Each structure stands twice: as C-alpha cells, then as structure tokens.
Amino acid sequence: ENVLANVYVDFDTTGRIAAELLSSQLPAGSRILICAGAPDVVSQRGVVQGFTSYIDEKSPELGYVYLYGDGGGEQMSLLSLRLKDMLMRDSSISAVFCVNARGSAVAAQVFRELDLGGKIRLVGSDIFKENIEAMQDGIMQNIVYKAPHQQAYKAAKILFDYLLRGIPPFQSDFIIKSSIVFQSNLHMYID
After folding, report:
1. Which of 54, 60, 121, 56 minimizes the C-alpha distance to 87?
2. How far apart are CA 143 and CA 97, in angstroms?
3. Residues of the chain with pLDDT > 90: what percent?
4. Which of 82, 86, 83 is nearest to 108 (CA)?
5. How many Å apart are CA 62 and CA 84, to the nearest integer?
6. C-beta separation of 128 from 101 below 8 A
7. Do the Cβ atoms of 12 and 50 come closer than 8 Å?
8. What would the pLDDT profile of 109-159 be if each residue is shown by its tens digit?
9. Three-state secondary structure along the chain?
10. From residue 144, how far is each of 90, 115, 140 by CA, in Å?
11. Do 179 and 14 touch, CB atoms closer than 8 A?
12. What confidence score (pLDDT) does residue 118 get?
C-alpha cells in the first residue's frame, strides 16, 4: 500500500493536554473516567495512552478507570447504560474525559439525564452540535479540538500539489495542532 502522506494530530500530545487540564482542576484522590473509545482504533488508543502517561508521570495522586465503546450504532445505548452505572456506583469519579465524538455525545446526554452538569467535570472531543449545546448549557466544561478542517485542508493541498502540479510532499507526516476549547472561546470554533 502506497501512502502519499499522513495528516493527523499528535495523539499522545492530545491526550497529555487533556490530562494536564484535568489534573490542574481535581483534588488528590480523585478518579477520572476515561471514555476510551475503541481500543483497536489507533487514534483513540494513542490519545488514551498520552492521557494515562501524563497522569502516571505528573499526577500519580489521581486515579483513572477505562470505559471502552465507541458509542456508534447499537453500542450507543450500551455505552450509555455502562456510563450511568459507573457514575452512580463510584462516587470517587470527579471527571469524565471522552476521546471521541460519539462518546462525548453519549456522556453529555448521560450527564443531562443524571443532572451532573457542574458536579462532575466533563471534557469531550470534537466540535459538533451536541458538544456545542453541552458547553453552552454548562454540562461540558471543555472540548479537545483536533482541527478537522485544518487536517482536511492540508490533505487536500498535498493531493492538489502532487496531482496537478507534480510536487510531491516534502515529508511523509504532517502534524496538526490540537487545542482545548473553553466556554469563553467556543465562539471562535463554531462555523
């Protein structure tokens, strides 16, 4: 298989950013529930690895627990049920971090149903309707933004230059910056 170039966010750094954010906001002894997506998806696994590495290295006084499931299709209701169960059973969970968009939508809905907005921190991934509404309503405190428009633009430019101008990419990997969205700068990320 020939690959012209790869365009992506640095998964490890993306996870570490979210971990640094939450570790600065939580008291020692808190636990973070990681909605870890699907373990066989490289990007999601990489974000989880970055997140847990940061906690282990910089904030070992915090604990974490995994909840796998990408939240797509029939898995959505199963993920919702498992998330509700874990949040109601474990009072040491002070925050939830979701590594993917579907998990974020499920978590926001569960937080609404259980009235957890502002009681447990919720950090989601990606900008889309449900996350925007959750941020505006105070359900979700932050979003990890992986710049999909920038990724698409860079990939299209590489392909355009190669196919139409005959210019091959000067490197094989192009890393796009990820960032954290707060309620105060959410308007800058909405199209």
Report:
1. 121
2. 9
3. 92
4. 83
5. 21
6. yes
7. yes
8. 999 999 999 999 999 999 999 999 999 999 999 999 999 999 999 999 999
9. CCCCCEEEECHHHHHHHHHHHHHCCCCCCCEEEEEEECCCCHHHHHHHHHHHHHHHHHCCCCEEEEEEECCCCCHHHHHHHHHHHHHHHCCCEEEEEECCHHHHHHHHHHHHHHCCECCEEEEEECCCHHHHHHHHCCCCCEEEECCHHHHHHHHHHHHHHHHHHCCCCCCCEEEECCEEECHHHHHHCCC
10. 25, 22, 11
11. no
12. 92
pTM of the model: 0.93
Please list the residues that pair with 7 across neighbouring strands. 174
- Going 44 to 47 to 50 to 55, the CA torsion angle's sign is negative
Token pair recorded at residue 138: 């105070």
| Cα–Cα distance measured from residue 138 to residue 17, given in angstroms and rounded to the nearest whole number | 21
Place of tokens 């954290």: 180
Strand partners, 104: none
Name residues whose C-beta falls within 8 Å of residue 88's C-beta, 6 or more positions apart in sequence: 114
Contact 90, 116 (CB under 8 A): no
Residue carrying structure tokens 């979700």? 140
Residue type present at position 32: I
Instruction: Give one word for 73, left, alpha or beta, with left for phi > 0 and alpha for psi -120 to 50.
Output: left
- Encoded amino acid at 41, one letter: V
